[in-house]
Amino acid sequence: MATLGLVNIGALATGDLAVPRQDVESILVEGGRIAALGAASRTAARGADVVVDCRGTTVIPGLIDSHCHVVLGDYTPRQKTVDFLDSYVHGGITSVVSAGEGVHAPGRPHDPAASKALAIAAAKCFEHFHPNGMKVNAGSVVLEPGLTDQDFAEMAAHGVRHAKYGFGGYAHPRDGEPDVRRAQKHGLCVMSHSGGNSIPGSSPITHDVLLHLRPDVCGHVNGGTTSLDEEGLRTIVRETDMALQVVQAGNLRSALFIVAIAREAGALGRVCVASDTPTGTGVMPMGVLKSVCELASLGDLAPETVIALATGNNARAFRLATGTLAAGRPADLVVCDAPAASMAADALTAVARGDIPGISAVIVDGEVRVGRSRNTPLAKRLAAITGVAVAGAGH
Ligand SMILES: [Zn+2]
Question: Which site from 23, 196, 288, 362 is most exposed, i.e. has the minimal number of CB atoms within 10 Å?
Fold first, then answer.
């Protein structure tokens, strides 16, 4: 496999909330993983087979959309759109986590056998299917009454790592608590729906239900799409250690409130950013990037901190290997700069102003998948890529 070097990096967001920004001039990638970061003289990145000259621009980890409504293939039945995952890579998203294939599967089965089968099928299909390099963490079983210990053991053995709670056939949302425990016992990361009914057929999940269910992640805790009450949110932040997922397709006022109270409580490490698309809100390739800009510009957080919420925090909450830039990690990288017309001089300052940066390269496992993004605004300074032909993007 060809080696890859990134040189002339102007700024680096690490994805690690503890050290969200580092002065790094170059990155060397070998075998799809980051081999070295630091001064160009030390990493020898300039001598790699493929060289991305960042020309003073910013490198961030590939964004993770931890709430993505995949079913099978690169197709969303909800919006009848093909190639949306391919397009999300152009929005800087290199990994997604399925929010339960059963949620949007046409004909949505409600029996445990179908729910299990669909999760296993999705996990195995997406293990081998990477649209535009996208890592699709699929195989998220929608919890249904009747799933047994043996079912969970079988799913875990076949690559199912996640579970979604909130769209099953339970009479009351509280009734699924034993199944949440069973899924967790078998190593699955459980994300619950939070807030009002987002689609016909789902039930509202209030803060006291979440406290009873104790999932690993309170999915779209800023409402999907109707927000929870503020006191309830304070209780969740104060009295639990559940991850708090805020999404683009939720309530922005509530997202800003959650980020503020989490920061106050020293719990920013639990906040993760996702899109919750494709949904009724649409197909949004820039959904995560847009949330990052909104939370940084309106929530008074440093841009590199919000980037960590959309990368390293997602990886920690959903147990993924990606999301942070450090030696040994998969080389999922985004090169970006302030958009051409921005008052900002660089990508991080643009994010702080609420301007969506222009992406000039997206790299997955050390392979350049996207040059100039077809979705973001044009970057002021474009990365120059040598040693490989990258399909040009259209503006
Ligand atoms: Zn959702």
Answer: 23
Are 342 and 303 contacting, i.e. CB atoms less than 8 angstroms apart?
no
Give 58-68 pLDDT, tens digit per residue: 999 999 999 99
CA angle 283, 139, 293 (to 5 degrees): 35
Locate the DSSP E strands across 284-338: 333-337
Comparing CA positions, the residue from 67, 63, 320 lying closest to residue 193 is 67
Q: What separation in Å is there between the alpha carbon of 82 and the centre of ligand 1?
A: 19
* Sheet of strand 33-38: strand arrangement: 33-38, 26-30, 4-7, 50-53, 384-386
Distance 281 CA to ligand 1 centre (A): 10
**Who surrounds ion ligand 1 at CB < 5 A?**
99, 276
Distance 43 CA to ligand 1 centre (A): 42
Give the tens place of pLDDT for each residue, 217-238: 999 999 977 899 999 999 999 9
The helix or strand, by DSSP H or E, that contains position 305, with its residue range, turns out to be helix 303-309
Q: Which two tokens stand for residue 148?
A: 């047994």
What does R_g of the chain's alpha carbons equal in angstroms? 20
Contact of 341 with 298, CB cutoff 8 Å: no
Determine the distance separating the centroid of ligand 1 and the alpha carbon of 68, expressed in angstroms.
Answer: 7
The two structure tokens encoding residue 297: 């510009």
- Closest by alpha carbon to 301, among 341, 330, 271, 344? 271
pLDDT at 167: 77
pLDDT, mean of residues 265-272: 98
φ, ψ (nearest 5 deg) of residue 120: -65, -45
Report the C-alpha gap between 76 and 69 in whole angstroms.
Answer: 7
Spatial distance between the Cα atoms of 365 and 333, rounded to a whole number of angstroms: 9
In residues, how long is the chain? 395
Q: Rounded CA gap, 358 and 92, in Å?
A: 10
pLDDT in tens, 108-141: 889 999 999 999 999 999 999 999 999 999 999 9
- Rounded-to-10 torsion of CA 294, 300, 301, 306: -10
CA of 348 to the centre of ligand 1 (A): 29
Sign for the pseudo-dihedral over CA of 73, 78, 84, 85: negative
